[in-house]
Design a protein that fits this description.
Low-confidence stretches: none
Structural class: mainly alpha
Strand content: under 5%
Shape: globular
Helix content: 40-55%
Order of helices and strands: HHHHHHH
Number of helices: 7
Mean pLDDT: 83
Number of strands: 0
């Protein structure tokens, strides 16, 4: 099923963030200033066009995927936090509600590892799996 695009998606994301952030972190002053800098950067990432751009790469049938804008926001957040392993990132999303909320996911419903790799398959607009051709050189047989 195609992702659902809503013209007010960014404002919906911001409303979601505020309500969930205050639910899990009633004292905003307990968050370190470095984390606030990251929150502000992600807060301003207006990514709903991501869904429009990737619409053709998704199936029109069930199951409906995670919103590509949320997936991209989450992946960019992982890069910002210097977490390069998707396995580690999914673990962090599950362990730290703040990362899930910043990404736009409910802390009790974060995407799995396979969901991220499926998302990467959709944003990789190429028939090839790699940037460069994977050449294998034949071993020289020494007698």
């Amino acid at each position: 099923m195609l992702p659902v695009y809503s013209p007010g998606s960014h404002s919906l994301y911001q409303d979601f963030f505020i309500s969930n952030f205050l639910l899990y972190y009633p004292d905003p002053f307990s968050i370190p200033s470095q984390t606030w800098k990251i929150i502000i950067q992600v807060w301003h990432l207006d990514l709903p066009q991501t869904t429009n751009i990737l619409m053709d790469s998704y199936s029109k049938f069930w199951p409906s995927p995670r919103d590509p804008a949320f997936m991209l926001r989450s992946y960019l957040l992982s890069i910002k936090l210097k977490i390069t392993s998707i396995t580690d990132w999914v673990s962090r999303l599950k362990e730290c509600p703040l990362y899930a909320i910043i990404s736009g996911f409910s802390p009790d419903d974060v995407p799995g590892i396979g969901t991220f790799y499926d998302f990467f398959r959709h944003i990789w607009d190429s028939d090839q799996k790699h940037l460069s051709v994977q050449l294998r050189h034949k071993k020289k047989i020494i007698n």
